[in-house]
Amino acid sequence: MRRASSVLDVDTGGGELLASLAPLPQTIATEPYPPNLPVAAKRLAPLGVNVRPGRAEALPVPDAHVDLVLNRHGALDAAEIARVLRPGGVFLTQQVGGRNDIEFNEALGMLPADPDTHSLTTVTVALESAGLVVEVALEEFPRVRYLDVGAVAYQLRLVPWQVPGFDVATPGDRLREIHDIIERAGSFTVHDHRFLIQARKP
């Protein structure tokens, strides 16, 4: 960050992570979700950040405009990243992979259509196809243990896209099965799916 003269943060959310990196160079933050924009602007404007509405597939930034693109858990368009980076610029991202907490889906009988469409491999290939050179590529599946079924229900309510169509208000027998697993084994274990990539534009 200290070596970058200009930064773009894609899908900044409420701007919490970007604000934690202050002091910042000349920085643009984009966010596609309208309710987040005033939250991000309130947090980031005092730090000199230009907060703009914008989607990952059509970034509101000129060609070859920034030295560093950040993206934490946001939508990712490899061609757009390559377009806005200056030669020698760096892209750094942490992503949630398609197999994130897939044990929930398995237990509830609602598997995603193709959990491998968003992975370290697929994103690396996309970035390289866009002309970037991948310098760092790391993937982890950290374990998370749930000690009661109430915590499971809360998590599924918090992230409804994990098991689309599942209603914790009318769970049927599937949630009871998770409860039984916790009673027998002491916990229900899922694995997060995270990957980190650093890539450079030649």
From TrEMBL:
Q: Name one GO biological process term.
A: methylation
Pfam families reported for this sequence: Methyltransf_11
Gene Ontology terms, MF aspect: S-adenosylmethionine-dependent methyltransferase activity
Protein's UniProt name: Methyltransferase domain-containing protein
Keywords from the UniProt entry: Methyltransferase, Transferase
* Superkingdom as given in the UniProt entry: Bacteria
InterPro entries on file: 23S_rRNA_MeTrnsfrase_RlmA, Methyltransf_11, SAM-dependent_MTases_sf
Record-annotated Methyltransferase type domain positions: 8-92
